[in-house]
Design a protein that fits this description.
about 40% helix; about 20% strand; binds alpha-D-galactopyranose
Length: about 325
C-alpha cells in the first residue's frame, strides 16, 4: 500500500530519526529511505565498537552506515563518546586525569578524521544515578576525572568538534526525581559556560508510563533551559515490566499504543521549536532491542512498523493530524 512519508509530513516540525545497525541498513533500506531523515547507529559508533585495543581502530561497520546516510541525504547523529557501558577498559588503566582526557581527545580526533564534524553528537550518555539521594552514577570516568568530569569531557570534545552540537543523553528522563537531577546537571553546565547544546530524552516508554502529563511537564522543563531537545531513542513497549510473553497479541494493546504515540506526537508538535529530532529506537518491530530486553527472547511490538515493515495503527495516527 502507498503511504505518505513520515519525514515529509513532519518536515515543518522536526527530523524523524531511527536507530540503525550495519545489518538493518540493508534489510530495512526501503523503509529508511522513504521515512527517515536522521539515523543513529545502534552500536557502531560507540567507543568499544570503534576501538577495542590501544591504537587499533575498526571503522568498517560505522562507515557502511555513514555512506548510506550520505548517499540518501540522511543526517547521521553521533552516539556516543562518554558512557559507562561499551567503553574499552584499557583507557582507564594506569592513567590519571591528564592521561584520560588526552586519550578521550585523541579518540574524538580519530572520529573527526574519519567522519568529519557531524552536526550533532551525544557527548555524555546516562551519567545521572537512578537511585534516590545519589546524584551522579559511579563510573570509571568519574573515578579518574572526579565529580566534575562532565564539564571536563564536554570541553575536551568541543575543542576538537567546534561545529558539532553536543548533547547530554539519558533515560527515565520523565521520572520526577531523576528529571530534577538531570535539570541540576544541565543548569550547572550552562551556568559554568560548558559547551552543551542539547538534551537527549531517550524516551524508552511503554503504554503504561510515563503518563502523558509527566511527558508534557518534562519537555516543558527541559525546554526552559533553552537547550535543544532530541527525543533520541523512542519506543513504546506493550509490557509493564518483566511479565512473560503474551500467548497472543491482543489488538487492544496496539490501539492503546496508537493512542500513546498519538498523544506524544501531539506534544512533540506543540513544542517543535525546541525539538530538533524525534528518533525511534528501531525501524520496525522485527529488529527492536525490546525483543530481548528486559526479558531475553520475549517478543515485543514497540515501534511504528510491524515485523513485515508495514505501517501500524500508531503510524497512521501520528500521520493523521
Ligand atoms: C541505551 C543506549 C543505546 C542502546 C540502548 C539499548 O539507551 O543509549 O545506545 O544501547 O540502551 O538498545
Amino acid at each position: 500500500m502507498q503511504t505518505e512519508s513520515l519525514k515529509e509530513k513532519y518536515q515543518p516540525y522536526f527530523k524523524i530519526g531511527t536507530e540503525v545497525s550495519w545489518r538493518t541498513i540493508d534489510t530495512h533500506a526501503d523503509l529508511l529511505k522513504k521515512h527517515f531523515n536522521s539515523i543513529t547507529c545502534e552500536n557502531e559508533m560507540k567507543y568499544s565498537s570503534l576501538c577495542r585495543k590501544p591504537g587499533e581502530y575498526s571503522f568498517e561497520p560505522a562507515d557502511k552506515i555513514a555512506s548510506f546516510a550520505k548517499e540518501n541525504d540522511i543526517a547521521l547523529h553521533g552516539h556516543t563518546f562518554v558512557w559507562h557501558n561499551q567503553t574499552p577498559g584499557f583507557i582507564f588503566e594506569n592513567t590519571d586525569e591528564e592521561g584520560l582526557l588526552a586519550t578521550l581527545k585523541a579518540h574524538v580526533e580519530k572520529v573527526k578524521e574519519h567522519f568529519g564534524e557531524l552536526a550533532t553528537f551525544d557527548a555524555v550518555n546516562e551519567a545521572i544515578e537512578d537511585k534516590k539521594d545519589t546524584y551522579l552514577r559511579d563510573t570509571k570516568w568519574k573515578a579518574v576525572l572526579g565529580d566534575d568530569y562532565i564539564p571536563k569531557v564536554f570541553r575536551v570534545i568541543k575543542e576538537v568538534l567546534p561545529n558539532t552540537a553536543l548533547y547530554y543523553n539519558d533515560y527515565n528522563d520523565c521520572v520526577p526525581e531523576k528529571r530534577e537531577k538531570i535539570m541540576r546537571l544541565l543548569k550547572e553546565l550552562l551556568a559554568e559556560g560548558v559547551p552543551i547544546s542539547g538534551m537527549g530524552m531517550q524516551f524508552h516508554a511503554s503504554i503504561y508510563h510515563p503518563s502523558i502529563d509527566e511527558i508534557k511537564r518534562s519537555i516543558e522543563t527541559y525546554a526552559s533551559t533553552g537547550l535543544m531537545i532530541r527525543i533520541s531513542e523512542m519506543d513504546v513497549s506493550l509490557y509493564k515490566e518483566k511479565e512473560p510473553q503474551f500467548p497472543s497479541l491482543d489488538p487492544e494493546l496496539l490501539k492503546k499504543q496508537a493512542d500513546y504515540y498519538d498523544q506524544c506526537f501531539k506534544i512533540f508538535r506543540e513544542y517543535h521549536k525546541h525539538i530538533d529530532a524525534v528518533t525511534l529506537w528501531g525501524a520496525s518491530d522485527e529488529v527492536s532491542w525490546l525483543n530481548n530486553f528486559p526479558v531475553f527472547g520475549r517478543k515485543n511490538w514497540p515501534l511504528l512498523f510491524d515485523d513485515k515493515h508495514e505501517p501500524k495503527e500508531a503510524f497512521y495516527r501520528i500521520m493523521n493530524f
